Amino acid sequence: MTHGAHSLDAHEVKRRLGVDPATGLAPHHVLERRARHGANVLPRVRPRRLSAMIVEQFANIIVVLLAVAAAISWFTGDRAQGAAIVVVLILNAVVGFITEWQSGRALDALRKQTRMTVSVRRDGRIVTVPAEELTVGDIVLLSAGDRVPADLRVLEAAGLQSQEAALTGESHSVTKTVEPVSIEAPLADRTSMLYLGTIITAGRGVGVVVATGGETELGRIGRLVMEIDEEPTRLQQKLQQLGRRLVYIVLIIAAIVTITGWLRGDPLWEMVEVGISLAVAAVPEALPAVTTFILAFGVLRMARQHAIVRRLSAVETLGSTTVICSDKTGTLTLNQMTVIDANTEPDGPIVAALCNEATGRIGDPTEVALLEWAERMGVDTERVRLDHPRVAEFPFDPRTKRMTTVHRDGEHYLWALKGAPSVVIAASSLSEADRERFRGLNEAMADRGLRVLALAEKRAPTPENDEPFTFLGLVGLADPPRPGVREAIRTTRLAGIRVIMLTGDQLHTARAIGRELGLEEKNVFARVSPEEKYRIVESLQKDGDVVAVTGDGVNDAPALKKADVGVAMGMRGTEVAKEASDIVLADDNFATIVKAIEGGRTIYANIIRFVHMMFSHNLNEVLTIFVALLIGWPLPLLPLQILWLNLVTDVFPAFALALEPGSPEAMRQPPRDPNRPIFSVTLLTTIGWQGAMLATISLSAYGWALSAYGPGAHARTIALLALVGVQVGHTFNCRSRIRSAFDRLFSNPYVWISTAMVIALQALAVTFQPLARILGLVAVGSAGATAFAVAVFAPIIVVEIQKAIARRSLTTPHARRQDAPRPPAAEE
Fold first, then answer.
1. Dist. CA 560–CA 806, nearest whole Å
2. Which long-range contacts (CB under 8 A, 24 or more apart) does 819-824 make?
3. What is the C-alpha separation between 401 and 456, in angstroms, rounded?
4. Of 327, 479, 556, 582, catalytic
5. Is 819 an active-site residue?
6. Four-residue CA torsion sign, 20, 22, 27, 31
7. pLDDT at 382 over 50
8. Residue 173 three-state SS
9. Stretch 102-122: mean pLDDT, rounded?
10. C-alpha angle with apex 324: 498 to 565, nearest 5 degrees?
11. Buried b / exposed e across 478-511, counting CB within 10 Å, b at 16+?
């Protein structure tokens, strides 16, 4: 009986369930059915074990490679380097664990929505029981303000309405009736059903339970959420691929250097140590830590912009988004019915206040909106109601499509009428010309996606009167767009991102909102069920899109979790939506997503800056040592000097580049190809020639030192100073692959701070005798300072020439369209 009850006659439903609504279930029937169907609770997701979450922080091939490097450093005598790597790994794991330990609780949030008590008819008596004890066949009594405790087939309805926005996306209350509907009717059109988790906003009703717990529509959504597997993000996948490649590269480097030096006649053990040291230098020990730091800093920056990130990796993924699938109600709109247009006589607002069941801000959203409109029009609604006490009423009936109330008005009676325009026009005294005029006005307002109501009144000496009404006019209501959303959508278009509206609301309403927001009709999907939202997201992902989904309702939860990035509304969003999401918008503002996307793009750009710098530096070190061995020069660096160089020139500049501010062009470029690896052909080429350029400068300095001082500590000190110098200068080059190093020169003070720290540490290594003895360095005076200064500025000059040529190639004689995204070549 779980599905299809909406299409059956109420008597047939009672017969199949074997229950008499007048008496309800007997106690023994309740026990039997609860044993068969289970308790009315949603299944819980098995929580992730803390031990498994901790292990996951180390389940990364780069982390494993670094652990091996730490062990090698420890056993070859450099215990400080080994300990430093271990500390980096532990800090990385702690940050990741703390950020992610609360994820995966969407079903627990669903369970919270079933904790309530309910009035039921059992064994001929009305009793109150916990909702968990309901079973199929129970007769439930509901009135305004109640939360529906299970899926019910309506048996009796008197002005019964429910708010189902969280489940279906409908922005207004739905009138419920006893009459069956088509078996194919979508969820939002099943007016003979009440669903778990929705709220009764008006009237009263009686229903019979047809589904409980996991078999309800809410439970089905819960199962969808539970069945969605957590998949690694694109960034995680790329870092894993990078780690696997690094394993082979490191082994090859160690083997080639060791064999080359040994064949040249150097001691085998010394060359093994050099090979291992170079391999350790080639491993990016700062990669996991700096990546985590970049993401964590992005989280803090986004929190200040009202975007709360629940999963670190989601920050980067949001920056690569190609499609945003957005719910309409509560996300693009305010989820607040409002009178948008009104064409009425002066008494119109008074009738709207009297023919109304809302009290204050409580009641059906449409009636609350009419009450607010009356107050905006200057009506003191409380005083009007006191001066016109209600003596009779005819509640809204979906068959008559009207509501009428009768009030005392001094010695007379005031009749107030509101309803469908066609019905109210027919009940009013109007000329044929006026009827046509108001029908045309009604159609024009409806075409704009407004829900149109007509108002009328009449005064009579008695509360019974058959005279026609005086037509007062039309009122158009809608759930209006959120302020700033249209501008935000335009910004996403400039950034090459497609926005799709997915809503359970009516097609004409969705299209009207879409037009107002500047969405193309092909990007508006109406009457979409939770399963269909899920399938649309899945289809987009199969086409290669990176999909962000926004929403606030229970019906959005499966799509939120399936998406590459789920974005929930924090103020109006249900707990289910929040728990299924990766990011929560604290201000419920769609425009905040645009800021978050910009932040995500900046974060990825900073990761690329860091990778660019780190691998250029590492390639420089490897080539300098390898080429020196090939041409017969003595080793330019000892193993401990290699490790010192790697520690000093990578860590501090890496963290400085992590704090690089975003480019002004970040939202004028299309999303990067989500399948493009971190090492694109362009980046690999850049790293290759720049690493070779740095090595050429370093080898030139070392060659000069050999000719001036001969082999030994003096030449090695000059070589180390040159290597540190070129990497200090190259840090400024890595701030952008297009912009000049002198553009926005002081926009990132951390680069200057890191430069000062590197220079200070290197000066200490040369002048502080205990440290100099450990590293095998000597004082070299002005020659060393000159070599260092030349090494700093030489790579900047070379790269500045290359950037100037690259910028000239990007300019075209044609004016660029202002509303088109920049080509990918303009990336940072």
1. 41
2. 819/493, 819/494, 820/494, 821/494, 821/495, 821/496, 821/668, 821/669, 821/670, 822/665, 822/668, 822/669, 822/670, 823/669, 823/670, 824/669, 824/670, 824/672
3. 14
4. 327
5. no
6. positive
7. yes
8. coil
9. 58
10. 140
11. bbbbbeebbebbebbbbbbbbbbbbbbbbeebbb
Measuring CA to CA, which residue among 549, 15, 32, 92 is closest to residue 288? Answer: 92
Q: Encoding tokens for residue 261?
A: 């030096």
The pLDDT tens digits of the residues spanning 670-687 come to: 887 766 777 788 888 999
Phi, psi of 738 (to 5 degrees): -120, -50
Terminal Cα distance for the chain, rounded: 60
Burial status of residue 659 (CB atoms within 10 A of its CB: 0-12, 13-18, 19 or more): middle
Report which of 201, 106, 205 is spatially closest to residue 158, judged by C-alpha positions: 205
Helix (H, G, I), strand (E, B) or coil at 717: helix
Helix residue ranges per DSSP H, 632-734 = 639-658, 681-709, 713-733
Specify the residue for token string 């070190």: 621
Query: For residues 746 and 661, what is the distance between their CA atoms, to the nearest angstrom?
Result: 11
Is there a contact between 209 and 135 (Cβ–Cβ < 8 Å)? Answer: yes
Of 96, 566, 514, the closest CA to residue 328 belongs to: 514
92 token code pair: 């990385």
Backbone angles phi, psi at 628, to 5 degrees: -60, -40
Identity of the residue numbered 63: V
Q: What is the DSSP string of 51-109?
A: HHHHHHHH--HHHHHHHHHHHHHHHTT-HHHHHHHHHHHHHHHHHHHHHHTT-S-HHHH
Alpha carbons 2 and 6: distance in angstroms, whole number = 10
Among residues 429, 349, 362, 355, the alpha carbon closest in space to that of 392 is found at 355
Query: What type of residue is 96?
Result: G
Selection from 180, 178, 182, 176 nearest residue 195 by Cα: 176
Burial class (CB in 10 A: 0-12, 13-18, 19+), 754: buried
SS3 161: strand
Q: How far apart are CA 815 and CA 827, in angstroms?
A: 19
Using one digit for the tens of pLDDT, what is the confidence trace for 748-760? 999 999 999 999 9
Task: Say how far residue 266 (Cα) sits from the centre of its chain.
Answer: 57
User: Rounded to two decimals, what is the model's pTM?
Assistant: 0.66
38: left (phi over 0), alpha (psi -120 to 50) or beta: left
CA distances from 828 to 599, 727, 825 (A): 14, 20, 9
Question: Comparing C-alpha atoms, which of 153, 180, 152, 175 is closest to residue 164?
Answer: 175
- List pLDDT tens digits, range 287-337: 666 777 777 777 777 777 888 877 766 777 888 899 999 988 777 888 788
Whether the CB-CB separation of 566 and 587 falls below 8 Å is answered with no
Q: What is the pLDDT of residues 636-674, one digit of tens each?
A: 987 678 768 877 777 788 888 888 888 777 888 888 776
Q: Which residue has the tokens 């083997």?
A: 255
**Model confidence band, residue 258 (pLDDT cutoffs 50, 70, 90):** confident
Collapse the DSSP code of 169 into the 3-class scheme (helix H, G, I; strand E, B; otherwise coil) and give the result. Answer: coil
Mean pLDDT of the chain: 82
CA 805 from centre of chain? 39
